[in-house]
Automatic annotation (TrEMBL):
Keywords: Competence, Membrane, Methylation, Transmembrane, Transmembrane helix. This is Prepilin-type N-terminal cleavage/methylation domain-containing protein. The chain crosses the membrane at residues 20-39. InterPro entries: N_methyl_site (IPR012902), Pilin-like (IPR045584). Its main location: other. It is found in: Cell surface; Membrane. PANTHER family: GENERAL SECRETION PATHWAY PROTEIN G, TYPE II SECRETION SYSTEM CORE PROTEIN G. It is a single-pass membrane protein.
Length: 116
């Protein structure tokens, strides 16, 4: 039996052109499906990171109001009062600034591109 297997393996010369083309086509199909999916994942991750930044600042803003009875003027005031460890940044690294409007609502002064 071992001799038969060795003989078959010895007679194989390599891949045929058709086999090679089939493999290339399959890899192309996989790439066509995977690349857009990966790009969507990155875009969604950036959007979620920016949304999470907004939630963190909103939570700090609410805690500041609950304890002091007034609203912080901006994210810097929240940091100075130790409600934020650092000034929040967008997923792209740009500093995100916040202020409080006349109703005491937190407003983002700058957007993080089109993913805010």
């Amino acid at each position: 039996m071992k001799a038969l297997i060795q003989k078959r393996l010895k007679n194989q010369k390599g891949l045929t052109l058709i086999e090679l083309l089939v493999v290339i086509v399959i890899l192309g199909i996989i790439a066509a499906i995977a690349i857009p999916s990966l790009m969507d994942n990155r875009t969604n991750a950036v959007k979620e990171a920016n949304a999470q930044t907004n939630k963190i600042v909103q939570d700090a803003h609410d805690r500041y109001f609950a304890i002091t009875g007034s609203y912080a003027a901006d994210a810097t005031a929240l940091k100075n009062a130790n409600y934020l460890r650092e000034i929040p940044k967008c997923a792209n690294g740009a500093t995100k600034t916040f202020t409080v409007d006349a109703n005491g609502m937190l407003v983002a002064d700058n957007k993080c591109g089109n993913t805010d």
